[in-house]
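Model it.
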Amino acid sequence: MIILIASQKGGAGKTTIATNLAAKLAIDSDVLLLDADRQPSATEWCIERKENHPKRPRVNCVQRYDDIDDTLDDLKDRYEYIVVDTPGKDSIEMRSAMLVADIIIIPVRPSQTDLNTIPVVSRIINQSKKINPNVKVFGLLTMASTNSQVKEIKEATEFFLDFPSIPLLDVVISDRKIYRDNMSEGLSVVETGNLSDSAAKAKEEINLLYKGIVGGH
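Modeled.
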């Protein structure tokens, strides 16, 4: 299964989603993280993980750029899951991956500036569906403030009602320091030894994300 993390705008936590999901999938599956972003944060995470946490579930990682659909087609039979991290903008990497992806996750911050990218993303997805009609697409609210979450999420959820082709997943990824801490260490929040309330909530968020994407497919 090819899971594409795609965003029209940077700062939506795209790589955080990709790495945490890849680590969660790796607990029970053979996983490849394909880094198609020339700012190779996902690759750096993989290197940190391999060097400092060799006993953790293995997440294989490769870098590929430009047209990556043929590469993904070639790799999909070698791995149970391929998680693709693309640049935070409209790119050839994003568009080519959409042609072969099984699932597309669109992370977006619950701010009007970020939500304004959704009409463009929706049009791009509709174009890709002419070639890849069976792809499943989900929106994912990310980087939500833990202080003003209710109002932001309510407004963002109402906004997405105008785009039924991008249904929202029933989970919100909050802006938590624990995500940044684990990212720098090559770990996922589901693997953290941190016992704080924030860490427990972050772990629950990733588990719910996993269930929403993989549990029903």
